[in-house]
Design goal:
By secondary structure, the protein is an all-alpha fold. 63% of the residues lie in helices and 0% in strands. The chain is built from eleven helices and no strands. It is globular and about 45 Å long. It starts with 17 loop residues before the first helix and ends in a 9-residue tail after the last helix.
Length: 242
């Protein structure tokens, strides 16, 4: 009979191997509710603007290049650097700048909701490092918003995840969430969605270019995606919160 002795470890996320934390963050098992956000993809589908996997791949690639990359990934990279440099007050500046840049109300609400859930989960199951604990207090006190990319950037930095990897991790999480939305709406099957994911790997990998970005680089130019997000707010058929 084989017996093993379980080694007792503290539940500080930043003491665990960073790869395991990255696996945990990318797993849909993590209860963030991000699967309820489509970032306007639902509206594209409802208006029959996306009919094929080629259309879907092109649309999501545009999201990554014109909105997710220069907006959310830049915010993530800045938050990551801020934690590494131990300048916690800068997290609020980044959070507020990102909030002002995201135009559709549902996009802002989704980002804040998911960010709050990520903080809540890790605060409950792990021991947050001081910089994140202070940020969480500011969010609770409604001194700042707690957008998901800012929280993710800070958390990955505290967990020892490389900044370039963190940028790609965020892109992967976004793509799998919106592809899941497209699948649940019923337009695409499992295999087609998996093929689309693989086809988007180069675009996800390309997000590492933002690892060295400064806050002054944060911008967004995705007028069609923003319009569709705003239309979604008043749509008669809505399965997703954005």
């Amino acid at each position: 009979m084989i017996t093993t002795t379980r080694k007792t470890m503290t539940t500080d996320t930043h003491n665990f191997p960073s790869l395991l934390v990255a696996f945990r963050l990318a797993d849909s098992f993590l209860p963030l509710g991000s699967h309820t956000a489509s970032y306007g993809i639902e509206q594209y589908l409802n208006e029959d603007r996306v009919e094929t996997t080629t259309d879907l791949t092109s649309l999501i690639a545009d999201y990554l290049q014109s909105m997710i990359g220069p907006t959310e990934t830049v915010a993530l990279a800045c938050a990551h650097r801020t934690v590494k440099d131990d300048v916690p007050s800068e997290l609020l500046t980044i959070d507020q700048r990102l909030h002002a840049t995201i135009l559709p109300a549902e996009f802002r609400k989704s980002s804040v909701t998911i960010g709050d859930r990520l903080l809540s989960v890790f605060a409950t199951t792990d021991s947050l490092p001081p910089v994140l604990a202070e940020f969480y207090r500011r969010v609770d006190d409604e001194k700042t918003h707690g957008h998901f990319p800012v929280v993710l950037g800070a958390l990955t930095a505290a967990s020892g995840i490389d900044r370039q990897i963190a940028c790609q991790l965020h892109g992967y999480m976004f793509v799998t969430d919106v592809l899941g939305a497209a699948q649940r709406i019923g337009r695409f099957g499992h295999t087609a969605i998996q093929q689309t994911l693989v086809d988007l790997f180069p675009d996800i990998a390309g997000l590492k270019q933002y690892a060295g970005a400064e806050l002054s680089d944060l911008h967004s130019f995705a007028p069609m995606a923003e319009i569709m997000g705003m239309r979604h707010e008043n749509a008669e058929r809505r399965l997703f919160m954005s």
